[in-house]
């Protein structure tokens, strides 16, 4: 069964989310702080993490940083501050989505399902490896390489790169990339997609190259690889 880890210092939120997610058939575990979350994850890695940003001692952004050193597990941030900076910061750290408190539990569950569907679709696809020069993606292994160096990608980053790689040279508008990366693309801002692309480009650059090109006023394309 799919395992979800809820990390929030508010016991009421944990209780509400646990009830809703278990009702949908997920196996749910809880952590009330960042340290407890990391300990729990090491013992029993989850398939997705719902992570509050504002927690005492160790906040959600630090938990995300530490998880991303070893795992690509999807992360959905919860934030009580209606502040674009927090949202973008979380996504640049490697989060896959965010929900602002107070939130609709029904919407959060739907977002969780959407992210997990993307991951399963990527894992189960029979697509052949995609290659463009030094860039290579293997959808079956959910892995990517630049010039032989492995890229550690989140589900969302992999989806964006796969979309670009399938049509090298084609300019994708932001809403097209949103459709490829999100089932709920209508509520995702342009800045959110920009944040994912910026992080993806940083990973490519760290591996020795960056074939993604910005087409100002339009979107992005995959250039020379």
Task: Please summarize the sheet with the most strands.
Answer: 5 strands, parallel
The Rg value, from CA coordinates, equals 17 Å
Order of helices and strands: EHEHEHEHEHEEEEHEHHEE
What is the CATH domain class of the largest domain?
A: Alpha Beta
Spatial arrangement of strands, main beta sheet: 2-1-3-4-5
- Note the overall shape: elongated
Helical stretch count? 8
Using the coordinates shown, work out and report the CATH topology of the largest domain. Rossmann fold
Mean pLDDT score: 84
Instruction: Tell me the CATH superfamily of the largest domain.
Output: Response regulator
Question: What number of domains?
Answer: 2
**How many beta-strand runs?**
12
Q: Between the first and last Cα atoms, what is the distance in angstroms?
A: 39 Å
Which percent band covers the strand fraction? 15-25%
Structural class of the secondary structure composition? alpha/beta
Using the 3D structure, state the CATH architecture of the largest domain.
3-Layer(aba) Sandwich
Structure, briefly:
With 225 residues, the chain is of the alpha/beta class.
Describe the structure.
By secondary structure, the protein is α/β, with parallel strands linked by helices. The protein folds into two domains: 3-121, Rossmann fold; 125-222, Arc Repressor Mutant, subunit A (Orthogonal Bundle). Helices cover 44% and strands 21% of the residues. The protein has eight helices and twelve strands. The strands form three sheets. A five-stranded parallel beta sheet has the order 2-1-3-4-5, with helices on both faces. The protein has a four-stranded antiparallel beta sheet with strand order 6-7-8-9, with helices on one face. Helix 6 (155-166) packs across helix 7 and helix 6 crosses helix 8 (190-206). The longest helix has 20 residues, at 105-124. The radius of gyration is 17 Å and the shape is elongated. The termini are far apart. The model is unreliable at 183-187 (pLDDT under 50).
